[in-house]
Design brief:
iron-sulfur, Naphthalene 1,2-dioxygenase Alpha Subunit, Chain A, domain 1, iron, alpha+beta, 26% helix, 2Fe-2S, Aromatic ring-hydroxylating dioxygenase subunit alpha, Rng_hydr_dOase-A, globular
Length: 419
């Protein structure tokens, strides 16, 4: 009996047909998963939280990323800092579990080595007079905030092209003053699928009409592609109406100095993969709610108009929707080849009061339903890709072009790292 030849990660990537999905083993194999974590989550900028996770000095938010763990801290000067969650003595985790806490200092639970919020070692007993505490500060992690988003990079030298995301998104987020927000609700769900399938699902709305009745009440799937072939006269007229409404909304917004145009940095040459656009919302054009009107009457920042649509941003593992009344920010972190944690937060103005300024059910019902529906879709797709009968099919050039683009970018980033 001949031996079965196991393809390398590179051979699997190279076997993908242009314009087609990825081979199933790229979603299911442990070695592929480990390479993915190393390249896409340990070497690139990743979203790990929001500024409202750490609103006060001494607040910390701990995030696990593969075998790595990062502590996000608000220091005494209200700066956002990040450190490796590793004691400089014998390596114990300082924060024993992921999540939020409030501390005066960072104390290792093993031998009580104590660190200030600036990372410096302040207390260590039985080390002798010749011990140099200054050489044992916590290991810093590169950190940047963009609007409410907290990004970190675990690499020694982070990708410099992140500056493009900062300069592009700053004017788009500015009217909403997202640092002056609080978390109205948060949701964490483990999806039974590979992180790449989570992101493929997020980057297309081909599936939306049949699976997301709550989302499509306000979200226009045509924003992400429309194929006129074989469509009815009513459908074609509907698309023409959509184009006219988009043009009118954009003209109206731009008169107020709002940035609207799509901007993409998605090709193989970039490290920081992102896209943004101000999208029209159906109906009242106010918010992603069931009636398309604001769920929170206390609008974000200095915003006075309710009908500002949706400032949309996606990254290689995250997605954001900012409306006049609230923001929805979500990110995916890989746990295993077939497990991905997705965290979603709903932000409102820091002074908004539940039951007075906003109704929590109205605020959250669209994206709670959509997230649960997506989890089922991802799990079902992951299971199918692991079936021996699976053969990757073609992407739609009209509605799934970003998936082929993502696959090419994935290929290029791994190749750059020698995979």
């Amino acid at each position: 009996m001949s031996e079965v030849q196991i393809q390398t990660h590179r051979e699997l990537i190279d076997s993908r047909k242009k314009g087609h999905g990825m081979p199933g083993q790229l979603f299911g194999r442990q070695d592929v998963f480990e390479n993915d974590v190393d390249v896409f989550f340990h070497k690139l900028w990743i979203l790990v939280g929001v500024t409202a996770d750490i609103p006060e000095p001494g607040d910390v938010h701990t995030v696990d990323i593969g075998k790595a763990s990062v502590i996000i801290v608000r220091d005494d000067d209200e700066n956002v800092r990040a450190y490796r969650n590793v004691c400089r003595h014998r390596g114990s985790r300082i924060m024993k579990k992921a999540g939020k806490a409030s501390v005066g200092m960072l104390v290792c639970p093993y031998h009580q080595w104590t660190y200030d919020l600036d990372g410096s070692l302040k207390h260590s007993t039985h080390m002798g007079n010749d011990f140099d505490a200054s050489g044992h500060s916590l290991i810093p992690v590169h950190v940047k905030t963009v609007g409410a988003h907290i990004f970190v990079c675990l690499a020694d030298e982070p990708p410099a092209d992140f500056e493009k995301l900062e300069t592009t998104m700053a004017p788009r987020f500015a009217p909403y003053d997202l640092t002056r927000t609080k978390i109205a609700h948060e949701m964490e769900i483990i999806e039974n699928g590979n992180w790449k399938l989570v992101m493929e699902n997020n980057r297309e709305c081909y599936h939306c009409a049949g699976t997301h009745p709550e989302l499509t009440n306000s979200f226009l799937a045509e924003d992400f592609g429309f194929c006129p072939d074989g469509q009815s006269e009513d459908a074609l007229q509907g698309y023409e109406d959509y184009l006219k409404r988009n043009a009118q909304s954009r003209e109206n917004w731009e008169k107020d100095g709002l940035v609207c145009a799509a901007f993409e940095s998605l090709d193989e040459s970039v490290d920081t993969n992102f896209r943004t656009q101000r999208l029209v919302i159906a109906g009242a054009n106010e918010s992603q709610t069931m009636d398309t009107k604001v769920a929170c009457t206390k609008l974000l920042g200095g915003v006075e108009r309710r009908d500002l649509g949706d400032v949309h941003m996606w990254g290689h593992h995250s997605w954001t929707h900012v409306m006049s009344d609230h923001a929805v920010i979500a990110y995916a972190l890989p746990l295993a080849p077939d497990k991905t944690v997705v965290r979603t937060v709903w932000l409102v103005h820091e002074d908004a009061v539940e039951g007075v300024d906003y109704d929590l059910k109205k605020l959250t019902e669209v994206w709670i339903a959509t997230t649960n529906q997506d989890a089922e879709l991802v799990a079902n797709t992951h299971a199918g890709t692991q079936d021996p009968a699976y053969i990757p099919g073609p992407y739609s050039n009209y509605t799934e072009a970003p998936l082929d683009q993502f696959a090419r970018w994935y290929d290029a980033k791994l190749k750059a790292q020698g995979v």
